[in-house]
Specification:
The protein is an alpha+beta fold and 192 residues long. Helices cover 45% and strands 11% of the residues.
């Protein structure tokens, strides 16, 4: 009988309400999942839209923003750009190439992200075919000396590839581009 009595008096579990911190964690996780879903559904190769600075006219795409920002900067520079040479910083190389009216392949990357390492291998495979016709400006995003160029180009994701024609207009691609597509982009620049 005593055994039955203990069962009847067994305490009921206390229902706890989630704390504010727990709700915050759940909301944060939900927001991150939403962001990942949006980024996954973003079209492959479509560059993010650049936000205009105060007083600027709205920019339609990152490619337009990039080519406009890069071209306008080189056009307004009062000092002549140094000769294009691999010992110069990428920003100086770009200024010189744009001043000379050459098409340019800009490659923004790091040396340690998985997607960047894959893209570096593809560039090393394809680019030598076009090295005489299309100069490459190779930009390591972790080199602090390149921060001004990263800001001007509106780089938010890596790897980013920008293809500028002789007029300084072009397109950008974010992510890993397959070898055939890279070859086609470089071929189009080389033929201009």
């Amino acid at each position: 009988m005593r055994h039955q009595q203990q069962r009847r008096t067994k305490p009921q579990p206390v229902k706890r309400r989630p704390s504010t911190i727990q709700w915050g964690i759940v909301a944060g996780v939900a927001a991150l999942v939403g962001l990942v879903v949006v980024l996954k559904w973003q079209r492959a190769g479509e560059a993010p839209v650049a936000l205009p600075a105060a007083g600027d006219t709205p920019v339609v795409s990152a490619a337009t923003a990039t080519s406009t920002a890069l071209a306008s900067h080189s056009a307004t520079t009062d000092t002549p750009a140094p000769p294009a040479d691999e010992t110069l910083l990428p920003e100086a190389q770009l200024a010189r190439l744009l001043e000379d009216g050459k098409p340019v392949f800009l490659f923004f990357h790091s040396d340690n992200c998985v997607q960047c390492v894959r893209m570096i291998a593809i560039v090393e495979q394809v680019y030598p075919e076009f090295s005489a016709a299309v100069p490459l400006v190779d930009v390591n995003v972790y080199d602090r000396r390149n921060s001004n160029l990263l800001q001007r180009a509106g780089i938010r994701y890596i790897p980013t590839l920008i293809f500028l024609d002789r007029a300084g207009q072009g397109r950008s691609f974010v992510g890993v581009m397959d070898a055939d597509d890279l070859r086609a982009e470089l071929q189009a620049l080389a033929q201009e």
